[in-house]
Structures are given as structure tokens and as C-alpha cells.
């Protein structure tokens, strides 16, 4: 019986340690995000640190004024177009509401290799009006690589980017993962700003904006998770503004 009691006591002690607590003080040893970030600056699980957000038809905004009251939301990019034929169903309504609330707004296009740069630009131009934009356009360029060689992809993307630049009068920012940047875009698009997505802050200093894992942010006025982004320490909102 004595051996059984000793075994049970040892099990309870181990359980207490594995749960991160102390039977004496009752204080949890779980670290806060602030403590983790202080020790590991590249860890960005902290959903309370951001400079701007990205929204599409998948997000439900209940109160744009509440979003605007968040001092960390310096900008919002709205998905406008996708390929040659898709227009985001909430783009125009969200654009009007966000600007009315006083938020700087930009349009995003999702580049595809399933249609020509010319047809995609027609879709973009039909949907996005330059006078409605506060920010330079953003082009997501990380889709369907298996459909083309690096050279074919670079040529098609460059053609589309040139058309958007001629139309808007400003060079777009390219959105991609860190892996795509190094494998596909680093050499041929060195003159562009990059908006990189990665679980941790990119090791390259090339990025202007960095986006963490999808839908980790939570903003008052918006239901559910939101894509959040942070500026490189050397950059700010002025890098994105269209000079009018």
C-alpha cells in the first residue's frame, strides 16, 4: 500500500510540472507574447502587432469606424481582382466604406498564369479606378508555378506589372512568400518593393512589408481572423502612398 501511495504522489508531481504550474504558488509558468518576442525577436505569433490589414469577400466588416479607431491600422488593402475574370464581390462597397471612415486604401490583384497579362490588366483596369486609390497597387505573384518555366512566368508578370504601372503612374508592390522571392523573383525584379509572407520575419532586408500566417489578427469591427502585416523597421506608410 505504501508503494502505491508513493507512486501516486510521483504521478501527481509529474502532472503538475507538465502543465506548467506550481503546486506551491499556483502561478503559471506560461510566457506571454511580449516575453517571447523579447527573447526571440523573429517570433511573430503575436497577433497584437501590426501596421495594416488585407481584406477580401471572405471577411465580414461590421463597423468600419471601429476599424479606423484602431491606431495600428494605418492601411487596408482590398482584394479587387483575380486573373482575367474575377472581381471581388465586396471590393467596391468596402472601398467606399473604408475611405469614408478615413482609412488609407489600396487595391490588390491576384496574378495567374491561366490567362494573359493583357486580359488580366483589362479586368484590373475595369475594376480599379486610380482616383479611388490612396496606396500603390499590390500584385500577388505566387500562383501556379508548375504551369510555366521561370522565364515564362517572369515575362508574363513583368508585362502585367508594366501595364499597371503605366495605368496608375506608380510601380506596384509584389506580394509573395519568401521562398518564391528567392526562387523566382529576386533576380529579375530587384527594382520592386516586396511584401513577403512568412511565419517569421524574413531574413532578407529586401522586404518592405511582412505578412504573418493567415487570419491571425483580430480587429474590432471585423468578425473572425484577419490577415495582418508589419512594416520593415526601415519603412513606413509613406512607401505605399500615391502622391497626388
| Whole-angstrom Rg | 23 Å
Q: Might you state the CATH topology name of the largest domain?
A: TIM Barrel
Q: CATH superfamily of the largest domain, called what?
A: Glycosidases
CATH C-level label of the largest domain: Alpha Beta
Tell me about the largest β-sheet.
8 strands, mixed, barrel
Shape: globular
Q: Separation of termini?
A: 84 Å
Mean pLDDT: 82
Unreliable residue stretches: 1-37
Helix content: 25-40%
Number of domains: 2
Total E-strand runs: 11
How large a portion of the residues is in β-strands, by DSSP E? 15-25%
Query: How many separate helices?
Result: 7
Please explain how this structure is put together.
The chain is an alpha/beta fold and 244 residues long. The chain has two domains: 2-30; 49-239, TIM Barrel (Alpha-Beta Barrel). The protein has seven helices and eleven strands. It has helices at residues 2-18, 33-39, 64-69, 91-100, 117-127, 150-168, 178-185, and strands spanning 52-55, 60-61, 75-82, 86-87, 104-110, 138-140, 173-177, 194-197, 207-211, 222-223, 227-231. The strands form two sheets. The protein has an eight-stranded mixed β-barrel.
Give the SSE map.
Elements: H1 2-18, H2 33-39, E1 52-55, E2 60-61, H3 64-69, E3 75-82, E4 86-87, H4 91-100, E5 104-110, H5 117-127, E6 138-140, H6 150-168, E7 173-177, H7 178-185, E8 194-197, E9 207-211, E10 222-223, E11 227-231
Parallel strand pairs: 1-3, 3-5, 5-6, 6-7, 7-8, 8-9
Antiparallel strand pairs: 1-11, 2-10, 3-4, 9-11
